[in-house]
Amino acid sequence: MTDIEQAAREVTARGESARRRGRDPVNLPMIHNWVEAIGDRNPVYTDASFPSVHGGIVAPPAMAQVWTMYGLHGTRPSDDPLGAMVGVLDDAGYTSVVATDCDQTYHRYLRPGETVEVASRLESVIGPKRTALGEGWFVTTRSTWYVGDEPVVEMSFRVLKFRPKPAAPAATPTIRPQVGRDTAFFWAGTALGELRIQRCGTCGRLRHPPGPMCPGCGGTEQEYVVASGLGEVYSFVVHHHPPVPGRTLPFVVALVELEEGVRMLAELVDLSPEAVRVGLPVVVGFHRVDDELAMPVWRVR
Amino acid sequence: MTVSGAASIAGIGATEFSKDSGRSELRLAAEACRAALDDAGLTASDVDGMVTFTMDANAEIAVARELGVPSLRFFSRIPYGGGAACAVVQQAVLAVATGTASVVLCYRAFNERSGNRFGRVQAAAAGQPTSGGVDNSWHYPMGLVTPAATVAMFARRYMHEFGATSEDFGRVAVVDRRAAATNPAAWFHGRPISLADHQASRWIAEPLRLLDCCQESDGAVALLVTSTERARDLRQRPAVVSAAAQGSGTDQYTMNSYYREDLVGLPEMGLVARQLWAQSGIGPEDVSVAVLYDHFTPFVLVQLEELGFCGRGEARHLVADGVLELDGALPLNPHGGQLGEAYIHGMNGIAEAVRQVRGTAVNQVGGVENVLVTAGTGVPTSGLVLTPP
């Protein structure tokens, strides 16, 4: 059992919290504020002279939570089960929250002058779940509003406490290179943070893109050198259209002449397209896509 | 042995050029082929050879079935996209000249606008288990993912070295669109543009603007090749193939030949040019009409240089001087080109060259003796010289 599950078991075992009394009784001014904000013009909530089946003003049932809100400077009681689980999950790194479900059951209408109390218990803590927002736990509490000892409203409330995913980096390519026998050394290099240039094991010729047979001497023993990563923009494109998966428009692709004498293509990042020119000095960087792939990128130096 | 003059284009056929044909690519291919047969005055039973692009989705046997061609004794395909256009005719000429086949249909059919659009990101390109897939792996994952962007990389360097500007590229588009405006078959019929329109069009892949880029089109074109001897007896005036050549250069890539000594020429087109002049016995000064492949405007300028119409880096002066207008010394793309008429992978340009030789083009140039046609640029390519018999 995880620490989170252990904590959930303890909080659940405490049962219902102490009842907490609303700051004010059910009252007409707050009803006015609420129905105006919601846009509900039903006269049974505000007009005492209206011939209502309720025989007088009643509060909108959906206002139940309103009567026991903490107010701007209120503090959550120490035995509140949701507060307890939020603390446990915050400490475990599930720092973000989003409400996912709220089901309310109304046993009767409330009338102005009635004093309402609320109590809550932890119903369940389920996880860890992988969601679109990130990994997290679903925390469900059950609250009951009372007038005296009479339950008037019940609510099941569920939140997702999650660990937010890191924002996707702008240069994430969704088009992957093909890695084969003749090119694996290059991609193994980028994964290690090295820019490798093929060198013929027979005549020493440098070559990019690499291939299996040296066009100079016919040699098939291929080695590589690690490039300094320094070069100059030989030509470049500012791509505006169409949209490219994983990239924000516009972006720059630059053909760079490395100081070793070969040309190589990569995205030029962290510089406004207007500032790019032929001859711009650049240095290689590496953008890690995942555990297997890192892409070379150029940055101005 | 020379094949110069041995074979002719005796029939041309096409569908309408549109943005949504509403028909299968196979049907487009069959319709264009049947139109070419009708144009020549031949029937399906006369056909014994077929050639198309490797990129074409319609198998020779499928097209033969639709047409009712009883048997084929020659079939062949040419790779590298639009670079195949003139080379499919060369294949047919070689087959006819050697007696391998007698009547060869060359065709290209696609729904390139309503179906698979070449201008969109081809996300699978780097994943193909081929040497081409490996080549693409040095470019696509880095964000160079469209044909326009691949040419823009070249164009930027060309501008840097020669001082060419976006307006220099734009003048090519203006010439094409002016011709298309008076060609009823052109998508941009009645819609010429000004240089200001070009300059106001949005960036696609800087330094290329929208109006530097050819259209995306649905349609098909077919060409019928037979011996010049037989063509003389058919319905139309033959367009004699006086030269046909292919070319691929040093350290050649498909659209990404960025690793050569310089980035301002198209050596594969230079190789095609030298062969065309040698086979036909003419030179640049003898060309009556130039139908130059125009998927993107900068490569029209470079072709003019590689073909010998001017020196390196000087083509922009040729364009600015009005030489390429319909009434100029070297009329360019009288049908409107692929920027103006339609993008049928260069095959509609060959059909226009045939019409210019026949004297039946809507924008007919006077006194046509030699028509030069080129195929796709930035890729291994091809070219033709067509002449009257």
From TrEMBL, chain A:
InterPro entries, sorted: ChsH2_C, ChsH2_Znr, FAS1-like_DH_region, HotDog_dom_sf, NA-bd_OB-fold, Thioester_dehydratase-like
SUPFAM superfamilies noted in UniProt: Nucleic acid-binding proteins (SSF50249), Thioesterase/thiol ester dehydrase-isomerase (SSF54637)
Region (Disordered): 1-24
All residue ranges annotated as the FAS1-like dehydratase domain in the record: 22-155
DNA-binding is among the record's keywords: yes
This protein's UniProt keywords: DNA-binding
Domain ChsH2 rubredoxin-like zinc ribbon: 187-221
Organism: Actinophytocola xanthii
UniProt lineage: Bacteria, Bacillati, Actinomycetota, Actinomycetes, Pseudonocardiales
Keyword match DNA-binding: yes
Protein name from the UniProt record: DNA-binding protein
From TrEMBL, chain B:
Signal peptide stretch: none
Superkingdom per UniProt: Bacteria
Record InterPro entries: Thiolase (IPR002155), Thiolase-like (IPR016039), Thiolase_C_2 (IPR055140), Thiolase_N (IPR020616)
Pfam families recorded: Thiolase_C_1, Thiolase_N
GO MF annotation terms: acyltransferase activity, transferring groups other than amino-acyl groups
Residue span, Thiolase N-terminal domain: 24-227
Domain Thiolase C-terminal as annotated: residue spans: 254-379
CDD domains the UniProt entry points to: SCP-x_thiolase (cd00829)
Protein name listed in UniProt: Lipid-transfer protein
